[in-house]
Design a protein that fits this description.
Layout (H helix, E strand, L loop, with lengths): L2 H10 L2 E6 L3 E7 L10 E5 L1 H14 L3 E6 L7 H9 L4 E3 L1 H4 L6 H6 L3 E2 L7 E6 L4 H10 L7 E6 L9 H15 L16 H10 L3 E3 H10 L2 H9 L2 E6 L3 E8 L2 E9 L5 H12 L5 H6 L4 E4 L12 E4 L11 E2 L9 H15 L2
Parallel strand pairs: 1-8, 4-5, 4-7, 5-6, 8-9, 10-14, 14-15
Antiparallel strand pairs: 1-2, 2-3, 10-11, 11-12, 12-13
Helix pairs in contact: 1-13, 2-3, 9-13
Length: 352
């Protein structure tokens, strides 16, 4: 643990860090006076997967559903489409519908009725990325203290009706231009356009960040990786269950971001994309044509070199076997984003 994180925990007390993905959510309770290797950790199905399971149960029972609650991740939409294809009644509040798409007309076009109260003979299904009582109960049952602060992350595409991926890349471009230090991309107050993060923050009451930011910070929280970035530019790859992120990092700062869908590319395609990405030749149109989110660049730093040293982690890392060095901050690859949240907040905000 670096000195700033140690001081932060000593002065703050226990901190709950939650990294919410499409398939799983990872959490750790950082406790002062204890080595990170001994912090309690949890790996659970993501809220979206739990909701998908509930929808499938109601589909089998041939029950109509009514979605209500918060805007959250749309990882349950596959189950929702199965429900719709069964020609069962499906409704949603306007707020919950944003979990499906930013364009309410699009949601209605899927066959979903927008209404603010539960239709007769339908079953309410509550949507939320985070519930304080859920985590407090887990900690209590485990005999652990409740957190004095919660740091949390989700992937936020931004409220952008023309298309989620366009809004997401627009946000990356703005961040890269404004400040290339990823620790500054943890929000004390989530921006208005990042509606999912704003909703999350109303539940946690603490700083929030995008999961991709946590992945980058999780890698550079490793002092060996950070030191290497001060010698030459490096590439960090986080291969998630759904999305693959690559970041060009030099001296702890980010100079390029690439995002694709893990299951829509083969290794040969990823290799070609990354080769061109490192050389700043890759275009957003090429990525969109193959189903990816896109890319964004900050300023060019010729002294960084070719960003050849590559560090890889994430649940889909096997796809990139042989393409770089597999890493696991504090010996725990799955909770790298949680460590990144803590490291980034302690170094970029609390101690700044």
């Amino acid at each position: 643990m670096d000195e700033r994180t140690h001081i932060f925990l000593s002065e703050t007390g226990p901190v709950l860090c939650v990294d919410i993905g499409s398939h799983t959510q990872a959490a750790l309770l950082a406790k002062p006076g204890i080595d990170p290797e001994n912090w309690p950790t949890f790996t659970l199905p993501s809220p979206a997967q739990s909701i998908a399971q509930r929808i499938r149960e109601l589909t089998i029972l041939k029950k109509g559903i009514w979605l209500y609650g918060d805007e959250m991740g749309g990882g349950f939409t596959y189950a929702l489409r199965e429900h719709l294809s069964s020609e069962l009644p499906t409704a949603s509040t306007s707020g919950a519908a944003l979990s499906i798409h930013d364009d309410i007309a699009y949601v209605q076009g899927m066959g979903i009725q927008i209404c603010e109260s539960c239709p007769q003979n339908s079953v309410p299904v509550y949507l939320s990325d985070f519930e304080t009582d859920f985590w407090n109960n887990i900690l209590k049952i485990s005999g652990l203290p409740l957190p004095h602060l919660t740091l949390a992350a989700v992937q936020d595409h931004g409220n952008f009706v023309p298309g989620n991926r366009h809004g997401r890349i627009k946000n990356w471009q703005e961040l890269l231009i404004a400040n290339s230090d990823p620790s500054k991309w943890i929000y004390t107050q989530a921006p208005e356009g990042l509606t999912r993060l704003k909703t999350l923050q109303t539940k946690t009451g603490g700083p929030v960040a995008d999961t991709a930011v946590c992945a980058i910070l999780g890698a550079i929280a490793d002092p060996h990786i950070l030191d290497r970035s001060f010698r030459e530019g490096i590439t960090i790859i986080h291969a998630g269950n759904t999305h693959t992120l690559a970041a060009l990092v030099y001296q702890g700062k980010v100079y390029g971001i690439y995002e694709h869908h893990t299951n829509k590319h083969e290794l040969s395609s990823f290799r070609e994309d990354l080769k061109q990405f490192r050389n700043r030749w890759l275009s957003e149109e090429v990525i969109h044509a193959s189903g990816g989110n896109g890319l964004a660049f900050g300023k060019n730093v010729e002294e960084a070199g070719d960003f050849a040293p590559t560090f890889i982690f994430g649940p889909g890392r096997a796809l990139f076997d042989g393409q770089g060095k597999f890493v696991a901050p504090h010996g725990d690859m799955h909770h790298a984003g949680c460590y990144g949240l803590l490291y980034g907040w302690a170094n970029g905000h609390y101690m700044s």
